[in-house]
């Protein structure tokens, strides 16, 4: 079984549009145990499109083509397909019905441009499109089946879901049961994760790494002759990975770090507040991306200036003068200050040098202090050095702060 | 001249990672008048990778390969390249230097896994990587040059910029002069931008649309027989677009909205503070993504709870009780409060319902109030309704608030 995809469109080649259909289809097919063997993208060019169709012929069992079915002059897919299959374009009655139904639903008249969309290669199977005017279609040549779908993501996804995925699912009945899982880790470089997982791989499970700065994600795919074999392999592999990586793993069920913290805060009936300098609000932004976060997130202060640190958070002037804004005494006072201000169970504070300027020999760009004040465990802080651009340093700092909150909630510090 | 790209990685095939490198490279090459003819993506599979290398051989002049240079067992690119070029892997001194320099900069020791990254096909040209441990390399076969780059976006972009783009630029000297420009707009849907620009297209200039939520970007590419012809066509087209779109255009020189505001604040010697409820810190985060923003951004308050709105910002209890937290009187009081607290020239405040729950008939999810307090012009506010997910509503709100700041700074409200 070999499935290929071909995406067409000048906007994909020139950095104007990011191809979300491939990403979506990869996930949708993987989750039912199918995979895309090869993906090709070409511009709106007759020769290159036909070349791509030809390359897949015989080699692939199924080819999913997206884009080029619209009403404009650079929509070439049906025309090229007609030539490729040796089946001239003809007005397809079912196709015309699909176009007219859609126009009617939108209260629009049939135009010559839309009528063009119903001209399909002779002998096509029409994949009626209730989400847009372009009908999809499929054709078979030399036992390779080609599916032609519109490139508009909503329409692509709808026709995949309605026709292509059920088709492929039925076609490849004899494939192995499969389970997939995403394990998210933070705190180790990829090479170190790989070293700690050396030898963890086993029959029937595939392990893939994804660097998702500043996290490393592991994607596990377990196969088996039966569902329960796939299930067992997955749970054994997951347990082994957890044993090896321990607290570096923050999620095995797809949650983000901020979702994990939200869950922990909610379970423990704890509340949180933030005092941010160098992250400029990013920590609060991430925490509040989680629906329902108003239940445990009380308030945040972005104390960019020293005045704000003193005035709102009550950081002593002496601490700022003696140690500077980027120091342990100051982040500890900030954490204490914001926890006192909000009455939260935990206060977290960061101060650092995000760059690109402002670094010194003693405190280079990327130097960050993070303080925590916990209602029962008191105040603590740590000093860190992060690398990268301004935005990366902000992101790395927010991640570390969130991870410290996670660990204190797990009693793991 | 034919340039192809090959991306490798199971994570790309399985919907784990969206390929940003292709998107980035398409844009970067287009802006110097080069184009990608074909893009292929394959998983971490020796046969398929080699098949993709082979398909490009002879057909393409240059092939840019990304991914598979990491230290883990699914990083196969160097091994497959060695077989493809008939040049066995050997420890490359320059490559080892690149790895060691990078590890040293990060204060890390050389591990066996990292050492693996310095084994390159014999005769490779090393593309030293100062941004990560994986050195890139290039090889030539039958007049097709292959560039092998890491898949990590930051490293891919850095090696493209440092080696590949200058190489290709020099190689294809005889192409037409080209100018590109990105015009960023905010405030109109794409169909309306297209309607206002109907008929603006002219000989020698291409216009492409990119939806970059919540902004619409226009990509202009002007060609000419000479540099000055391309230049003239670009400036005429840009002037025409500015005439038609006016204040909806916020940048023609590549700046983000937050950079535009930063520039305006700096020019006018003004300072800014923020009081955020539903955006949860996102506005402050965006403002502080700009280097040097501490010169004009004084402080931010994320007043998620009503207590914070009253206690820190001095929002009257009566306003909260009479109108609710999501109301004009409350955002106006928040804006006044944060401006008073910080002493800034402008205070901006937002309060809304980001969802997915919390909406009512009167104030559905997406209802947002934005208030401004300006030192000379006093307090004003507006009510808006945004659509989308929680994160989209947060983003749309932050964009609108930043655009209101831009307009008040331009005296354009």
Q: Explain this structure to me?
A:
2 copies of one chain form a homodimer. The first copy, chain A, is α/β, with parallel strands linked by helices and 413 residues long. Chain A folds into 3 domains: 3-171, MoaB/Mog-like domain (Molybdenum Cofactor Biosythetic Enzyme, Chain A); 178-251, Alpha-Beta Plaits (2-Layer Sandwich), CATH 3.30.70.2860; 257-409, CinA-like (Maf protein, Alpha-Beta Complex), CATH 3.90.950. Helix content of chain A is 40%, strand content 25%. The first copy, chain A, is built from 15 helices and 17 strands. Chain A has helices at residues 10-13, 20-30, 46-56, 77-85, 93-105, 112-116, 153-171, 190-196, 227-245, 257-268, 282-287, 306-311, 317-323, 328-342, 390-409, and strands at residues 3-8, 36-42, 62-66, 89-91, 119-121, 125-127, 136-141, 144-149, 178-186, 205-212, 215-223, 249-251, 272-276, 297-303, 346-352, 367-374, 378-385. Chain A has a 6-stranded mixed sheet with strand order 2-1-3-8-7-6, sandwiched between helices. A 5-stranded mixed sheet of chain A has the order 14-13-15-16-17, sandwiched between helices. In chain A, strands 10-11-9-12 form a 4-stranded antiparallel sheet. In chain A, β6 (125-127) and β7 form a beta hairpin. In chain A, α2 (20-30) runs parallel beside α7 (153-171) and α10 runs parallel beside α15. The longest helix of chain A is centred in the last third of the chain and has 20 residues, at 390-409. The model of chain A has no long low-confidence stretch (mean pLDDT 94). Chains A and B meet through α1, α2, β2, α3 and α8 of A and α1, α2, β2, α3 and β10 of B.
